[in-house]
Amino acid sequence: MQRYGNRSGISGVVAYEIGEDFVAARFNSGTTYWYSNTSVGVEHLAALKRLARGKGLGTYISQHPDVKHGYERK
């Protein structure tokens, strides 16, 4: 996993991994959530990939119920 940039300084996300068809996000609780095309859809997954490389990943996850509760596994 790569360390998340946390540019705001307040993100709950500490690390991420991007694969062809998934994004894994590790939170400061130590739990890693896996999101895939199947679990959240192509559009949400594309947004998660973009945000993981920049900023806003934790906010996006928490503000989109389809993503927040749509993880494939943890």
What distinguishing features does this structure have?
alpha+beta; four-stranded antiparallel sheet; 4 strands; 35% helix; globular
Protein model, in words:
This protein has 74 residues and is α+β, with helices and mostly antiparallel strands. It has one domain (2-68). It has 4 helices and 4 strands. Strands 1-2-3-4 form a 4-stranded antiparallel β-sheet. The mean pLDDT is 93.
What's the structural blueprint in terms of helices and strands?
Blueprint: E1 2-3, E2 13-19, E3 22-27, E4 32-36, H1 37-40, H2 42-52, H3 57-63, H4 65-68
Antiparallel strand pairs: 1-2, 2-3, 3-4
Give the quaternary arrangement of the chains. single chain
Strand order of the largest sheet: 1-2-3-4
Determine Rg (CA atoms, Å).
11 Å
Number of strands: 4
By helix and strand content, what is the structural category?
alpha+beta
The rounded distance between the terminal residues' Cα atoms is 15 Å
**Cα shape:** globular
